[in-house]
Design brief:
Length: 139
């Protein structure tokens, strides 16, 4: 089967088309997916490397500054990289509780990067709808 190039349709409303259409088309053709590909790489790294607990850890690993990460996530995902990391960590906490974790909840929180118990309880309750201890007791 012969290789084909993908075809993409782009609809661009252009004011005063005769004067600006050439520049618009040139701008579209000059765009690359480098930023999107970088974002996908970062999200995949966050998902698969749970040792990344802070945005600074991600910055160091991928060699990208905090502001650039914030812009990429804001543009493509709609939330901050901190929010994404926090959700991944919270999923890990819930999985540990679902798998029968019986240790101290403060230790569990610290394992996943929360060093302030009140902050951990607030985030857990906001996302899950109950406190960590009530969640564990109610399984």
């Amino acid at each position: 089967m012969p290789e084909t190039n993908p075809v993409i349709s782009v609809i661009v409303p252009v004011y005063k088309a005769e004067e600006t259409l050439d520049g618009c088309v040139e701008s579209i053709l000059a765009q690359t997916f480098a930023d999107f590909e970088l974002l996908l790489k970062v999200v995949q790294l966050m998902l698969h490397d749970r040792s990344l607990l802070r945005v600074a850890d991600v910055e160091q690993r991928v060699g990208v500054g905090r502001r650039r990460l914030q812009r990429l996530f804001s543009y493509y995902v709609g939330v901050s990289p901190k929010w994404v990391l926090s959700r991944y960590r919270m999923h890990d906490v819930v999985a540990a509780l679902d798998n029968g974790y019986q240790g101290l909840l403060t230790d569990l929180a610290a394992t996943y990067g929360w060093y302030d118990q009140a902050h951990f309880i607030r985030e857990f309750s906001a996302l899950i709808g109950t406190t960590p201890s009530a969640y564990r007791d109610g399984r």
